[in-house]
Amino acid sequence: MATNTEKKQSNFRDFLQMHKFAAAGAFFIIVLILASLFAPLPYDPEAPNPGVGISPPSADHWFGTDITGGDVFSRTIAAAWIDLSLALAGTFLSLIIGVPLGLLTSVKKRWSDNLVRGMDAFQAFPLLILALVLVSLSGNKLYMVVVAIALINIPRYMRLIRSEVLTLREARFMEATTAVGVPLPRALRKHVLPNVMGMITAQTTLTMANAIVVIATLSFLGIGVAPPTPSWGSMIRAGSSNMISGEWWVAFFPGLFVLLCVWILNQLSDAISDFNTRTIR
Amino acid sequence: MVLLELEGVSKQFHARGGKGIVRAVSNVTLKINAGETVSLIGESGSGKSTLGRLVLRLLEPDEGAVRFDGVDLTQLSVKEMREMRSKLQVVFQEPFESLNPRMSIGDIVGEPLIIHDRGLNSDARKQRVRETLERVGLSPDSSTRLPGQLSGGQQQRVGIARAIITNPKLIVLDEPTSSLDLSVRAQILSLLADLQRELGLAYLFISHDISTVEYVSQRIAVMYLGEILETGPVSEVIKDPRHPYTRALLSSRLSTDPNESLPRLRLIGDIGSPTEVRAVGCVLAPRCPMAIDACRSQAIPLKEFAPNHEVACIRAEETSDALLSNSISGGGSN
Fold it and tell me: Between A193-220 and A142-169, two packed helices, what is the crossing angle to 10 degrees?
């Protein structure tokens, strides 16, 4: 008889086999984070190097250097930590608030409807501008970036979970659960949650991708992560003025990393939903 | 001994779109004795599944009493009802849909014990699950599998195992075999018969298939548009149906007996809409070839026709003769 952990391990192995590309992508992101934390970078990402000036990619500087002589490769890798960890924190915060809210609003009728309507009204705000205002009002505190991401994503989680759970409650096996006499808390924990877990995971990777874009946008606008701390958004901004004179590499490489991360996370989300529907039949 | 007694049970729904009321079940009175199978038969939309859910209190009746073991279930608090559920179980029509697709078979079958038999430790519970799986004809090894890995017949056996594990007295079988293959259907029916004998279960068997009903039940209740039109011992009702609707249902079945000579009866049109505002008369009157003016002008309650055999038809005495003697028997005579 397979124990629970064995079953989970074999599930994980199945996933790696069925979705090699998504698995490779996830591996890339993990390596990227580890590298930005622990790997010895060829140059100090925060130190300008006025003697070098702006130069194209070469054997010495793989991604070239920017106008201050900073090594674009070192800066791009170093930025991964701050950008991805902020995205992760924001995603996590939306997850732990959004999921219980979704479960809660799927239970009772009137007040939950009102809450959902309220959240809808909240979503009518242009969310990026809301984030902008919040972060700048707080005096450019980084934790406010996390809060802003959570504010954007909590209503999305809530709606998604709620609609899924409302559908699930109509399922015949939920009626069977009532007939057996399963109390509501247990029904939510044992019957509802496992059936929305896959969807939550898929949504989480999407939220993560969205958060990366929001952070990059904010720092592109000069809000949130402030120079000299490297971040992909501010690097793209700094490089955008060089673009016109043909020095493409300064903005290109951080842009490429944003693109890669978002693309991988989207692929991962697809892979998870696919895996999830396949394992039950 | 009477185990379940329905008295004047009614349930209405608001029709989709707001206007109109659907009378799904109106004024139903029915008894089930301990260890007995009573079949509830009728076409789709007749309210038979709704009645099953009212018995289980998966729906709350608008009127009437549902007495189980002498206790009116409609008066119980949610908590009291939950405790009662160990004695009152259900098997649904859709075997796969009625099992949580992400829960192992062992967890599904063992869950009622977690709720109703708190004293049981995990090992003893697993032992009970294994025994119950074997009793319904599944290998105990299947407890680690997921519902999607089993066949339809096996899934239905899991549903049955979940229903019997708390030693209930009554099981509502809501068309338990209608989505299964013919060969599997026979196996499930004989399993249900065995379990009934061994465990002394009473069944409320809901079905639209009169030949299945003949095979499994002692008594039968025929439902149409939320009302019971005829009820009695199964052999008597099938040999000598007194309500034109029962007669029509029997006419629609394929007989295995070439010498059977019941006159056929064909109804006019389709099943009426339950939302229509009905006049006082018989619910079948608009479709019944035997209807006379009196059928439309007065309420027609169930009346005892023979001991235990009740019919809600004012022409019950003459049903057979009327059909034999004149042309109202539509279609092939025989």
Answer: 150
* Total domains, chain A: 1
Using a CB–CB cutoff of 8 Å, tell me whether A178 touches chain B.
yes
Q: Closest Cα of chain A to B283: distance in Å?
A: 31
Q: Is residue A57 part of a domain?
A: no
Instruction: Determine, yes or no, domain membership for B230.
Output: no
In this structure, are residues A189 and A183 in contact, taking their beta carbons and an 8 Å threshold? Answer: no
Nearest residue to A38 via CA among A3, A75, A77, A11: A77
Q: What is the pTM of this model?
A: 0.82
Q: Which residue of A has its CA nearest to B114?
A: A182
B159 Cβ under 8 Å from any chain A Cβ: yes
Chain B nearest C-alpha distance from A82 (Å): 37
Q: Are residues B137 and B188 located together in one domain of the fold? A: yes
Same domain for B313 and B210?
A: no
Per the domain annotation, does B234 fall within a domain? Answer: no
Q: Which residues of A touch B145 (CB under 8 A)?
A: none
Q: Which domain holds residue B276?
A: 261-325
Within 10 Å of residue A128's Cβ, how many Cβ atoms?
Answer: 15
Count of Cβ atoms closer than 10 Å to residue A4 Cβ: 9
Q: Indicate which CATH number applies to the domain containing B154.
A: 3.40.50.300
Token output for A211: 């958060």
Domain presence at residue A10: no
> Which chain B residue is nearest to residue A276, measuring alpha carbons?
B102
Please list the pLDDT of chain B residue by residue as tens digits (334 residues).
899 999 999 998 887 766 678 888 988 999 999 999 999 998 888 889 999 999 999 999 999 999 999 999 999 999 999 999 999 999 999 999 999 999 999 999 999 999 998 888 999 999 999 999 999 999 999 999 999 999 999 999 999 999 999 999 999 999 998 888 888 999 999 999 999 999 999 999 999 888 888 888 999 999 998 899 999 999 888 888 888 888 888 887 766 666 665 667 778 777 766 666 565 788 888 888 888 888 888 888 888 888 889 998 888 777 666 555 544 444 433 3
Range of the domain at A195: 21-37+72-280
Q: Do B300 and B213 share a structural domain? A: no
Asked whether the beta carbons of residue A180 and residue B83 sit closer than 8 angstroms, the reply is no
Q: What is the ipTM of this complex?
A: 0.84
- Is there a single domain that holds both residue B309 and residue B193? no
- Give contacts of A191 with chain B, Cβ < 8 Å: 100, 103
Q: Do B100 and A280 touch (CB under 8 A)?
A: no
Number of domains comprising chain B: 2
The string of DSSP codes covering A86-144 is: HHHHHHHHHHHHHHHHHHHHTTSSHHHHHHHHHHHHHHTS-HHHHHHHHHHHTTS-HHH
- As beta bridge partners, residue B33 has B2
Q: Do B112 and A181 touch (CB under 8 A)?
A: yes
**Same domain flag for B188 and B300:** no
Instruction: Calculate helix-pair angle for A232-243, A72-105, nearest 10 degrees.
Output: 130
Closest CA to A117 of A155, A63, A68: A155
For residue A202, tell me if it sits in a domain: yes
